[in-house]
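Standup notes, structure subgroup. Blocker cleared on the beta-D-glucopyranose input:
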Amino acid sequence: MKQYIKVDGWNIIEEGFVPHYNKISESIFSLGNGRMGQRANFEETYSGDTLQGNYVAGVYYPDKTRVGWWKNGYPEYFAKVLNAANWIGIGIRIEEEELDLHKAQVTHFSRILNMQEGYLQRSFTATLESGKQVKVTATRFCSIVDDETGAIRYSITPLNFEGNLQITAYIDGDIKNQDANYDEKFWEETGASIQHSSAYITLKTKKTGFQVCTGMQFNVYQDTRPLAINVRPVQKEKYVGVVTTVKVKSQQETVIYKYAANLSSENHPVEALANNCEIAVGKAAAKGFKAMLKEQAAAWAIKWKESDIIIEGDPAAQQGIRFNIFQLNQTYTGEDARLNIGPKGFTGEKYGGSTYWDTEAYCIPFYLATAEPQVARNLLIYRYKQLGKAIENAAKLGFNNGAALYPMVTMNGEECHNEWEITFEEIHRNAAIAFAIFNYIRYTGDTAYLAEYGTEVLIGIARFWAQRVNWSEARGQYVMLGVTGPNEYENNVNNNWYTSTMATWCLQYAMDALQHVKETAADRYDAIIKTTVFDAGKEQEKWQHVIDNMYYPVDEQLGVFLQQEGYLDKEQILVKDLDPAQRPLNQKWSWDRILRSCYIKQADVLQGLYFLEDRYDIDTLRRNFDFYEPRTVHESSLSPCVHAILAAKLGDEKRAHEFYLRTSRLDLDDYNNDTEDGLHITSMAGTWMSVVEGFAGMRVRDGQLQFTPFLPGKWQSFAFNIRFRGRILKVKVSKQDVNIENDSTKDITVLIYGETVHVPAGATVTAKQGNLVN
Ligand code: BGC
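Run returned:
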């Protein structure tokens, strides 16, 4: 745990240069706009420890897997979002010396991520070996208005000399993924051009054949006037740059503006890439840095209006939650249904930038409540479009008749991870995808989604479950063998309660969906039956039989659902009785020992109780929570939020807050010593859930919003903005009151602590905490 980030409501601030923290800060200060993103690398050369990272959404490479004994059914590749061309590069030479913070003496260093307006600013004073001193302020952003462009303002002022300043503005495409399995380079150059102060390079990925044209244009100002510069092109393999030398005087500021664009063949015809890139760069340069930044701030103001959380009385918590919301909004904007949310977003290479069940289980609620319905809908459509591949995935494993198994890790719908037990056997992801459809419709009321897209997906998923169970003669029930639940510290188990419960839930939901479509959209029903070759009578009869005869492990004496068959055979030593020196288990214990232990990596039974909470009475929730929580080590950042929400529901406000604290500043404080790999983007959505579903108790039942709020810890108040069915609401919970402001033109009726409250358009209503006032 580190605490070097200065607490501030709207800014993330680092003061002082600690090379040892550089990779952590590169992750924390990352920028993105849903279409591209980058780590907070330096513009000028840095020869110290760094992970250079630029990423273009949707551009991936199928790296060869590393598997000892290949078996049928293993995926052929391990896909990763590629580290792409570095467009921020501005090399600075002062006379004969290169500006490199690894070699210079650095003072007055600061990095500020301005979350309100969406830009990064870095300042420092560097003393070179020769004693020459320069002051630099670099500001940059990835535009959320023109999401293929970015801009940099790089200001440099000599403090004690005059002479020549050589500037090289460049794009470096000779980039390698640090996590490449065989140290291969994945890009090859297909074209490059340099025209005066602009340069363009097109790179193509091997195998997948994606092409990305990255372009830049720069200009130089002194005394607020543009300089007519002499330029010299530099071209090397996968590299284009432009060099200019300007005379500088002591205390005279030189400002370099660099405009860049990243265009991918996913969005442009290959033959038009270079030309369109030139247009995009030209447009940015014509608009100018100041105007672009102004637009950026205005666009972020709208995002904050919909998604901000305001906490009074705890500045560190305020900064933590805003940081999470900021990063989520930088990662996914919902504008493109081909894109998804990698667990590390655009902030690092780990998890390959692929799509996991994290999206459906943890991220959907955030985007549902903080953006137009289209945003979450596009995440669902992403899976709809991959239904064919999910059917192929299942067929490769021996399933038939249109059974669909969505991948645990994917780029294009194909499974692309290389661990069997932990990853492939986590077939529970299929259920999260069905649950996301349910969750989306529950929140938005968009039941038409079922006829349009949802039901086909649900049929594929239901068919998979109906084939994945088998009839046990011995039990006279259906069982589900050889699975891994969300708790990855148990592999290849039989009858995982969560998986079996969610499987039958999916079967029932698929039948409900079919019935709904039959009643409301007969034509679509007929079309779906035809496309899916669905034998409505026979197949549903089987589904019903599975629902009625499924085996779920329970312990009657303890009154708890059993995570899986045989869980109680394990030695039951609680986490509190474990020597803290033994943790985290995944770093201290052998895998063999972990698998045999009773310790739970992340919510498993409790994940099911969270999803399906309305099925269970409060005593059942409490018994299971009290049993599993003391056995959970939360070694996945996705775990504490589920515990926070359940603790809040059980009235344990103190513990709800404690669970929240485990993830709220996870990356800002480098809680798990792994922030340098990238940020935990998907768990950030879980932190948001802890506040809104946990502390505010927000639920949607029968189309109505409900709240049962309490004020955690030392907070004086908290407020959050949400969208709900055409309204923008601001919910504020303070010591005495709960206020709901309806900032829209439509009235709404909500439930607060079980009482109906009408909130007219434009009005604010107040209820007493725990008791209704008016
Ligand atoms: C978790 C998974 C998750 C993955 C990616 C793992 O550590 O156990 O549930 O999908 O990380 O975030």
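Discussed briefly. The longest strand covers residues 211-222.
Next: hand off to the docking folks.
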